[in-house]
From TrEMBL:
<dbReference type="InterPro" id="IPR018735">
    <property type="entry name" value="DUF2277"/>
</dbReference>
<dbReference type="Pfam" id="PF10041">
    <property type="entry name" value="DUF2277"/>
</dbReference>
<feature type="region of interest" description="Disordered">
    <location>
        <begin position="88"/>
        <end position="107"/>
    </location>
</feature>
<protein>
    <submittedName>
        <fullName>DUF2277 domain-containing protein</fullName>
    </submittedName>
</protein>
Length: 107
């Protein structure tokens, strides 16, 4: 079992579409060995991720409720992960803004 895939069944509030999609992407990366999506792998990885996410959503809906919640909190619900995501998004937006202005910058 891939350690990066979190248990989503039994979460309160229930797993979000974003959490289900993230788990599906981790599964696809694990079984394919694709660690970084490239132009050559983007379409099949995205298609597989969408299909697996749909299957997981149906599965979670069909299973009976858990007696106890999962022991770990999904990464997307952790403050430190949210901070990293926000920082990456901020850096991406800054990079795009600098690129639009034609300003070179160091990484």
């Amino acid at each position: 079992m891939c350690r990066n895939i979190t248990t989503l069944r039994g979460l309160e509030p229930p797993a979000t579409d974003e959490e289900i999609s993230a788990a599906a992407l981790q599964f696809v990366r694990k079984v394919t060995g694709v660690t970084k999506v490239s132009d050559a792998t983007r379409e099949p990885v995205e298609r597989a991720t969408d299909e697996i996410a749909a299957i997981v959503e149906r599965l979670l809906d069909d299973l009976p409720a858990r007696r106890q919640p999962p022991k770990s909190v999904p990464p997307l619900r952790r403050a430190e992960v949210q901070a990293r995501i926000a920082e990456r998004q901020r850096a991406r937006e800054e990079h795009e803004r600098m690129h639009e202005l034609g300003i070179a910058h160091e990484h």
